[in-house]
Amino acid sequence: MVEEFAPAKINLTLSITGRRDDGYHLLDSLFLFANVGDRVTARPADGLSLEISGPRGVGLVADPAENLVLKAARLLQAEAGLTQGAALNLEKHLPLASGIGGGSADAAATLRALNRLWSLGLGLDDLARIGARVGADVPAAVHSIPLRVEGIGEKLTPIGPLPPFGILLVNPAVSVPTPAVFAAFNASGTSFAMAAEALPSDPRALLAVLHRTPNMLEAPAITLQPVIAELLQRLVALPGGLLTRMSGSGATCFTLYPSPEGAEQAAVNFAAEPGWWVWGGGLYNQSHSL
């Protein structure tokens, strides 16, 4: 059996810099990965199959045509020219359609797990190239390190070292489909952004840059789910936070803290509504072994 962790992705910033003729938006974003996520396990088998478990797996269907885990597995199998399969299990802990890349992280973890199970010997860059055919966030999730992500997710530039931030994540029990958020952005008539600034290494200067570079999908997501604005107000009111905003296309919002301990305590103290998902802790800072 091979097991891989699928950490949650956090968009510290998200600028939309243009739109291609095929409709894909061009992005410039800063990704961090939190030390919370799903788990993918793979066992030898004749064919490909997927079982879904975990507290957030209820209602998630292992549809071969839609599920990103199975899509990633089929692509890697075809790329390697294999006939052998795998029995996959997805242990789901992250909320669905929440702006923290759960599905992309699961697909990336599947690629890493099967690379090991099938002894393919592919590097992370090879897996990222295959993952780009699954989804725009998958290449970054294959690496799961702090990254500047540009284009449609294909241009990755490592950033860091970063301060030992803590992060509080809260999802207000609503899903925000990414296509709907981009449609709302297009309808808003908001101008495209210029490329983001270079990142300084000094923590105070870094935070100043982050405060000047927002998530451009936050406003259109709020038009679809006004509870996001309420959640952001509650997070800003908490003591000790360094930066608060929505991640990705929402609806999960976050606050950075100076340390993981500060974020953990904030999660304990946060007065969540029934059904809301709350987590506090540190950033994912491990290297994936292949």
TrEMBL record:
<feature type="binding site">
    <location>
        <begin position="95"/>
        <end position="105"/>
    </location>
    <ligand>
        <name>ATP</name>
    </ligand>
</feature>
<dbReference type="InterPro" id="IPR014721">
    <property type="entry name" value="Ribsml_uS5_D2-typ_fold_subgr"/>
</dbReference>
<protein>
    <recommendedName>
        <fullName>4-diphosphocytidyl-2-C-methyl-D-erythritol kinase</fullName>
        <ecNumber>2.7.1.148</ecNumber>
    </recommendedName>
</protein>
<keyword id="KW-0418">Kinase</keyword>
<dbReference type="InterPro" id="IPR036554">
    <property type="entry name" value="GHMP_kinase_C_sf"/>
</dbReference>
<dbReference type="GO" id="GO:0005524">
    <property type="term" value="F:ATP binding"/>
</dbReference>
<dbReference type="GO" id="GO:0019288">
    <property type="term" value="P:isopentenyl diphosphate biosynthetic process, methylerythritol 4-phosphate pathway"/>
</dbReference>
<dbReference type="InterPro" id="IPR004424">
    <property type="entry name" value="IspE"/>
</dbReference>
<feature type="domain" description="GHMP kinase N-terminal">
    <location>
        <begin position="67"/>
        <end position="143"/>
    </location>
</feature>
<dbReference type="InterPro" id="IPR020568">
    <property type="entry name" value="Ribosomal_Su5_D2-typ_SF"/>
</dbReference>
<dbReference type="Pfam" id="PF00288">
    <property type="entry name" value="GHMP_kinases_N"/>
</dbReference>
<feature type="active site">
    <location>
        <position position="9"/>
    </location>
</feature>
<comment type="similarity">
    <text>Belongs to the GHMP kinase family. IspE subfamily.</text>
</comment>
<dbReference type="InterPro" id="IPR013750">
    <property type="entry name" value="GHMP_kinase_C_dom"/>
</dbReference>
<feature type="active site">
    <location>
        <position position="137"/>
    </location>
</feature>
<comment type="pathway">
    <text>Isoprenoid biosynthesis; isopentenyl diphosphate biosynthesis via DXP pathway; isopentenyl diphosphate from 1-deoxy-D-xylulose 5-phosphate: step 3/6.</text>
</comment>
<dbReference type="Pfam" id="PF08544">
    <property type="entry name" value="GHMP_kinases_C"/>
</dbReference>
<dbReference type="GO" id="GO:0016114">
    <property type="term" value="P:terpenoid biosynthetic process"/>
</dbReference>
<keyword id="KW-0414">Isoprene biosynthesis</keyword>
<dbReference type="InterPro" id="IPR006204">
    <property type="entry name" value="GHMP_kinase_N_dom"/>
</dbReference>
<feature type="domain" description="GHMP kinase C-terminal">
    <location>
        <begin position="201"/>
        <end position="270"/>
    </location>
</feature>
<comment type="function">
    <text>Catalyzes the phosphorylation of the position 2 hydroxy group of 4-diphosphocytidyl-2C-methyl-D-erythritol.</text>
</comment>
<dbReference type="GO" id="GO:0050515">
    <property type="term" value="F:4-(cytidine 5'-diphospho)-2-C-methyl-D-erythritol kinase activity"/>
</dbReference>
<keyword id="KW-0547">Nucleotide-binding</keyword>
<keyword id="KW-0067">ATP-binding</keyword>
<keyword id="KW-0808">Transferase</keyword>
